[in-house]
Design brief:
With about 475 residues, chain A is an alpha+beta fold. Helices cover about 35% and strands about 30% of the residues of chain A. A 5-stranded mixed β-sheet of chain A has the order 5-6-1-7-8, with helices on both faces. In chain A, strands 9, 10, 11, 12 and 13 form a 5-stranded antiparallel β-sheet that branches. A 5-stranded antiparallel β-sheet of chain A has the order 16-20-19-18-17, with no helix packed on it. Chain B is α/β, with parallel strands linked by helices. Chain B contains 6 helices and 11 strands. Chain B has an 8-stranded mixed β-sheet, with helices on both faces. A two-stranded antiparallel ribbon of chain B has the order 1-2. In chain B, strand 10 and strand 11 form a beta hairpin. In chain B, helix 5 packs parallel to helix 6. The longest helix of chain B has 14 residues. Chain B is globular. Chain B starts with 6 loop residues before the first helix and ends in a 5-residue tail after the last strand. Classes of the chains: A alpha+beta (about 475), B alpha/beta (about 210). Strand 14 of chain A pairs antiparallel with strand 6 of chain B, so a sheet runs across the interface.
Chain lengths: ~475, ~210
């Protein structure tokens, strides 16, 4: 097992600075902590003036009067972490987010896919660079150690448990997953790093700092297993991108839409699904949203195909307002069947049928697709049924059926007059259905109208003796 | 490198329309199963991988019965039949008696015309539907062309039942028939056939019913 932890230490600051154009001077993010406004993160110019995280806002303003203060935007941070989690599924099937702004991946199973761990890690680094956030990437044989290194800001690659314990000798206890009072107590007795902690007698650690501390150390050093709760890939893809500046032209929109579509495609690849429709929403300055529905003929996950559709749709949009954000969502994922097959074409007609049926269901809904079944009953309206699944074929009835029409009206329609009707066949008496109360006594005739239509009509044999049209011969 | 086709080859495969001569349509044809109809049609049957338009003044003049034997043939080969937006309820016992396999028959009915056309395109292009029957309310040339391409892709037989009112409009369908019913039976006029020209009208006697 090999775990990689990616820590985004400056995320609260970067989601804000990436989004708006802020002055080059100091920027600080504030957060409320027990009703006091404190500095949560600050950028380099601010830090140079002496502003530090944890400082009171007033103190910071005194040090740097031109400091730009931005409230912390938790939603943006969550969105960024969500994007990262969608992305991470390319590299591992075991993803976890054990603490804020940190993502953990198990990468040893993907080693063969990337032909070496180095390739995998450099690919990860390249992708993270594109995201544009400051990251610390640490790889270690245990998840706890990877977390520890990344949270401490140490970029490191530790392959074996031996290298790990050597590294841990020098690692400070500050970022350890231990209760603060334990760390404080250990610092008081002069234990600052793991090397010194491991030198203490085991029984004493248990007695003074509890079994939990020893359990943590065992998991950290790989002596016991460290199960990590996995993040389940979401079934619904939804992503919003805040545009850095107000966008007025379609070309700029295309660029932003392209990023969203790229992430959608990565997401679909990891889930091994395709989609037939998705919705792009343009969030305008005025609060008005423009939804754009995009459809494909078959389930797709190809970037170029989606972008073609998006381009076609965006060209017809008239932008009256500036667009400040663009979002993409899709819900119904379908199994993806690639168009070309290699050596063995295993696609039987069964799978072709289910693929077609699934596509129709996804777009139209199950009420619009029906199948017919024959039912043994002499009453015409009861001799058939709708079913929601195709049924096994039954043997056809007697040859008498040749005198039946191809089309039946949903309910018999009263016939106004018998003139202009040329009688071709009948009468055929149907008397049936006494057992369920819907008994019929009718004489059926085949007639032709002046316009050439052939109808199936009947006369009710009870009072009043009315005439009805029941079907058409197609 | 492929040799350039000779004049004979071009004339033989039917892509050139010749005024008086009836030549093979070049495409696959499905036997109609109706005596006299195969001979009457230049394509010697229903064109597969293309659209057929059957025009009539109203429904119920025999337009569907015309297609039944060929549909039954497809059913025997276990091919799917898709009926999209039929004007009335298809009567199952009669279909069954005409040897149509109900377990391979699908009825699709949507409220919106564009959804019906989408469903038609999907089923035509899928490759497992032998025939797709559509009763369009409004369809323009561009949409017809899309359906034609879908039928070519899926090698399926697309049948559109339309009103004679639109007979003057141009259509990319490979075969266009007009059917009329009178006292003596059906009267068919094929006024457009890909690859040839049908001569005169065909009179058919009704087969019972």
């Amino acid at each position: 097992m090999l775990w990689t932890a990616i820590h985004l230490s400056e995320l609260p600051l970067e989601v804000i600075t990436q989004q708006d154009t802020l002055p080059a001077s100091g920027v600080a993010v504030t957060a409320v902590d027990s009703r006091q406004h404190l500095i949560y993160r600050c950028n380099t110019p601010a830090a140079e003036c002496g502003v530090t995280p944890g400082m009171a806002v007033n103190a910071a303003l005194a040090l740097a009067p031109t400091l730009s203060l931005q409230p912390r935007q938790l939603e943006l941070e969550q969105q960024a972490m969500q994007r990262l989690s969608y992305w991470a599924y390319q590299y591992s099937d075991m993803i976890s987010m054990p603490q804020a702004h940190l993502i953990l991946l198990e990468i040893s199973k993907s080693e063969q896919l990337f032909s070496s761990i180095n390739n995998l890690l450099s690919s990860i680094h390249d992708d993270l660079h594109e995201f544009g956030f400051t990251t610390t990437v640490a790889t270690a044989p245990t998840p706890g150690a990877a977390r520890l290194m990344a949270a401490s800001g140490v970029d490191i690659f530790l392959r074996s448990l031996g290298a790990l314990s050597q590294q841990l000798q020098r690692t400070s206890l500050q970022s350890a997953q231990l209760p603060p009072q334990t760390i404080k107590a250990l610092n008081h007795i002069g234990v600052d790093n793991f090397g010194q902690l491991m030198a203490l007698p085991r029984a004493e650690i248990i007695r003074r700092h509890g079994q939990e501390t020893i359990n943590y150390l065992d998991r950290l050093y790989g002596k016991t297993a460290d199960p990590v709760p996995a993040l389940h890939p979401p079934t619904r893809f939804e992503l919003t991108l805040q545009l850095p500046a107000e966008v007025h032209t379609v070309e700029a929109l295309l660029f932003a839409a392209g990023r969203l579509v790229r992430e959608l495609c990565d997401f679909l690849v990891t889930q091994d699904k395709g989609i037939q429709q998705f919705r792009l929403t343009l969030h305008c300055q005025s609060g008005h949203n423009i939804p754009i529905q995009c459809h494909t003929v078959a389930p797709e996950r190809d970037y170029t195909k989606f972008m073609d559709i998006v381009k076609n749709n965006l060209q017809h949009i008239e932008l009256k307002d500036n667009v400040r954000a663009i979002s993409l969502e899709c819900e119904k994922h379908l199994d993806y069947l690639p168009e070309t097959y290699d050596l063995f074409d295993m696609r039987s007609s069964e799978t072709q049928w289910s693929s077609l049926f699934e596509r129709l269901l996804a777009r139209l809904g199950s009420e619009k697709i029906r199948f017919l079944k024959q039912y043994p009953d002499h009453r015409p309206e009861k001799a058939w049924q709708y079913t929601s699944r195709p049924t096994v074929s039954e043997v056809a009835e007697s040859t008498r059926e040749k005198s039946r029409p191809l089309w039946l009206l949903p309910a018999p329609k009263p016939l106004t007059g018998l003139d202009n009707l040329h009688f071709l066949g009948g009468p055929e008496r149907l008397e049936n259905g006494w057992w369920d109360g819907e008994d019929i006594r009718r004489d059926y005739y085949i007639v032709q109208t002046a316009t050439g239509q052939r109808l199936w009509i009947f006369q009710h044999l009870r009072q009043p003796m009315e005439w009805f049209v029941h079907g058409l011969f197609g | 490198m492929r040799a350039d086709p000779t004049l004979q080859q071009i004339l033989a495969d039917g892509s050139v329309w010749r005024h008086k001569t009836r030549c093979a349509s070049g495409g696959e044809a499905l036997q109609t199963g109706i005596p006299g109809l195969d001979n009457y049609l230049p394509s010697r049957g229903w064109p597969v991988g293309a659209l057929t338009e059957i025009l009539s003044d109203q429904y119920g003049v025999g337009e569907l019965s015309l297609t039944l034997p060929a549909l039954a043939q497809l059913s025997r080969k276990q091919r799917w039949l898709a009926w999209i937006a039929p004007p009335h309820l298809p009567y199952a016992p009669m279909l069954s008696a005409s040897e149509i396999d109900l377990s391979h028959l699908m009825l699709i009915d949507c409220d919106q015309e564009h959804e019906r056309l989408w469903a038609a395109e999907q089923t035509l292009a899928s490759g497992i539907c032998g025939a797709v029957l559509l009763w369009p309310h409004r369809i323009n040339n561009r949409q017809l062309r899309r359906l034609q391409l879908a039928a070519e892709k899926g090698r399926s037989w697309g049948i559109l039942f339309r009103s004679t009112r639109i007979s003057q409009q141009h259509s990319p369908a490979a075969l266009r028939l007009h059917i009329e019913q009178n006292d003596k039976g059906y009267s068919l006029t094929a006024f457009k056939c890909r690859g040839g020209r049908a001569v005169g009208q065909l009179k058919l006697n009704p087969e019972g019913g």
